[in-house]
Amino acid sequence: MDNVRTRKQNGEVMNGSNRKLNGHANPRERGTLPAEQSENIFLFYPNIIGYSRIILAIASLYYMPLHPRTCSLLYSVSCLLDALDGVAARRFNQSTRFGAVLDMVTDRCTTSCLLVFLSSAFPRWALLFQGLISLDFASHYMHMYATLTMGDSGQSHKKIDQSRSRLLHLYYNNRTVLFIFCALNELFFIALYLLSFSSPMLTPSLLPTQGSSGATTQPGNPSHPSSMIFATPGSAWAMELARANKMDSFWPWVIAGVSFPVMAGKQILNVVQLVKASRWLAEGDIRARRAQGLPKKKR
């Protein structure tokens, strides 16, 4: 009887081992639950919204040189979806580090592409636009890196301690303030973009004046003849293109005037963010050097 029982017990042990080897063991025994296996971060609702923003931004860039109305609409919708992905993340409990980085990178890239166009449309102000691009990238990269390396595990770059910076704490923790600053900042640059198609004070006419060589000085202007997709100045197609793209400059000037103070405030916040993040990283370096016994005292 003992031998029979021993054989049965050995058989059960062997069968259980075979089931585990064949992948049929209890999921809890393997240490992984089916729910954890089936979760795909890349298909979370906020991230899908982020992909949609990228598609809309690319489409707006395609229409940017020639169709200001279509470009402005696509670009504006892409920016407005920036607020929707945060709502979706909170609604479905799908806040992720990937989503936060995707959101920030999309913001930086779309704004930079628009500023690149403005640099060519307004060459006298190209250095200023290039500086804004550099400041935007530098401040957000330093801030994100400082948060990931110096902050607590899983800390979001939007969770700023008030003791570190009251301005940044208000900016990132008050959703209304964050939305107003981001929206009006983008509106200012969109207004400048529209003015490149409408304001004679900022851009030359599409058609050359009498005695001119027929070339414009605005490489970002839709009238620039260096590209094959643009009409030759003075031609019938150029005249038709001028009528089609001509825009009233009143509302772009109004939008630019209203949004300019907020845009300027956003750049000040970028400077503060860059300085605070640099100091935070420097504090971490000092602690790390002290832990290593550096600097060593001279004998």
**What is the C-alpha radius of gyration, as a whole number of Å?**
29 Å
| Uncertain regions spanning at least 5 consecutive residues | 17-25, 27-33, 204-231
Instruction: State the helicity in percent bands.
Output: 55-70%
Largest sheet entry: none
How many strand elements? 0
Structural classification: mainly alpha
Molecular shape: globular
Order of H and E elements: HHHHHHHHHHH
Distance between the termini: 83 Å
Average pLDDT level: 80
Oligomer: single chain
Provide a brief overview of the structure:
The chain is an all-alpha fold.
List the helices and strands and how they pair.
Elements: H1 2-21, H2 27-30, H3 34-38, H4 45-63, H5 68-91, H6 97-121, H7 126-150, H8 166-173, H9 175-195, H10 236-245, H11 250-291
Helix pairs in contact: 4-5, 4-6, 5-9, 6-7, 6-9, 7-11, 8-9, 9-11
Structural commentary:
By secondary structure, this protein is mainly α. 68% of the residues lie in helices and 0% in strands. It contains eleven helices and no strands. Helix 5 packs antiparallel against helix 9 and helix 8 packs across helix 9. The termini are far apart.
List keywords for this structure.
mainly alpha, 299 residues, single chain
